[in-house]
Amino acid sequence: MAHALIVDDDPDVVEWLQEVARMEGFTIARARSGRELEKPDATEVIVVTGHATVDSAVAALRAGASDYLVKPADLERVQAVLRHAKKTSALQQEIGELREELRKLGRFGRILGSSQRMQFLYDQLSRVAPTSATVLLIGESGTGKELAAQTLHELSRRRDAPFLPLNCGAVAPQLIESELFGHERGSFTGADRQHKGFFERANGGAIFLDEITEMPMELQVKLLRVLETGSFTRVGGTQQLSSDVRVVAATNREPEKAVGEGKLREDLYHRLNVFPIRLPPLRDRGTDIEQLAQFFLDELNRVEGTNKSFSREALVRLYQHSWPGNVRELKNYVQRAYIMADDRIECDIGVADQAPKLDDGTTITIRVGTPLEEVERRVTMATLAYCGHVKRKAAEILGVSLKTLYNRLEAYNGKDADVTQSSGGGDVAH
């Protein structure tokens, strides 16, 4: 039977919540304050309080609470949260089995990659996906933040409900409020009919707010209110509407810096930053570069009915480029290279305009000031690619023992660096 811990210092509220939870099939435990809050295994914790602050919400959620509600609690919202909570235990077990099954394939949900950095990312996604916690994805442009958000949703108990993405930097500031909350007919010029916004249409599901720091400050206040109360009004309307929506936000800025620059409200940042996840840049992902490039090429070959491949020199070039545009840049490179190549993709296509040119496939250029650890990694991976992934030969060229080479590769990727080939179609990348 599902179990819930109720934290409140008001006995009447506790009695009411206990009755609601029992009706939903829960057994109950109680605590008088958040200081007594612990999250035993397989227990879902829901906090309801009349003393709501951003700090207390974040502390409760980070301590293991599944959700955080503000008094006076809405009965339907409490029931919805409890019903969601009952599904979490089974979902966590399902994700664990999926995680192990896909680990060998070097992918997780919609995300592709076998490196140690990606394995850590998968662990974080596995832990937070079954919960209702708000997630803040932080990463450079092109690292796959939307794919991570989609993966979170598809592994959550909300997966049968809508997932709606909104790029806050791509919508005119005056229209974002209408997109999020909807509007009533006649509320502004051109509003000739009622419009339901994302929070209404995604009820029970999730909203992905990309480039959250581009949202107007006055709208950030309204977003914070929805996150704290679950209620909103349409533009031009007066009726209070409720919505049970999980918010996943993303930014390519450093959040603390954005707060200091006045791009992001500090209270909203703390509310979004319940479970922050950093997506690694491609340059830190070892042989994922080659795995992704091969995946993109395989997809092009499948769609076009061809059998093109990378030359050894082209693979070396993949490792010597810093990929400032990350996976998005790599995908564009592979597509350009595919178009230009006959049967074999050579080293002078695509990346040649952005990286130092190789004379014979045996030279790489490294900027002054590059950390020695990064120098070693790039030289090792480029040499391994040049040798066609024959490790004994690569070790001889590098002047190290085979054991040392294996140790390096394990440190870079968290596993043997043989490239895991991905098969089949589907919307998977990054």
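(ticket continues) Second input and output from the same batch:
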Amino acid sequence: MTELEEVHRQVSTCRDCGLCERRTHAVPGEGPENAEIMFVGEGPGFNEDQQARPFVGPAGRFLDELLALAGLRREEVFITNVIKCRPPENRDPLPDEVEACRKYLTRQIELIRPGLIVTLGRFSLSWFLPKESIGRVHGQPRAVGGLNILPMYHPAAALHAANMRQVIQEDFRRLPEVLARVRQGSVSTFREPVSADAVEQGRLF
């Protein structure tokens, strides 16, 4: 058993918060242990809880489309969530639930060592950048504590607001450019916020 598999075993039997009482399955995450990109969502939904896999419902199908836009396949990336068990009725995670799962995501990052972490939605963003707003920083890469972070809207946002679909698609179309900068070691130049005008005019880099 690899160290990452051991983390996932611990997740599957975890009882560190009340979410364990109602789950069908914990959802540790999936993907290659040497993945260059890690996607971090909020938490499992109904389908994920049933199948013990991340992003397998409607939002997951849209994520697959978005990955294709970026020239990626699900098998190439690691996908997980901030919390590993489904909250009742898909409510927002509570602070103590996020904290109970913090050690698992931290260890996954340490073991996989992704070149780029794509946060999906506000809860994932706040895990890494607690003072930032997803509306202000989506699509803008940041270097944070030795990690390269690319904030994105959650794919589910497009399911609830049709006008979000194009915004999310455009952010994903820029992902290959961000990844190229990661490989060159130059994401650190984006420690300061990129201006809204620059993003609007396509001058992200």
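Agent notes: DSSP finds ten helices and five strands in the chain. The CA atoms of residues 20 and 201 lie 47 Å apart. Closing as not reproducible unless the customer responds.
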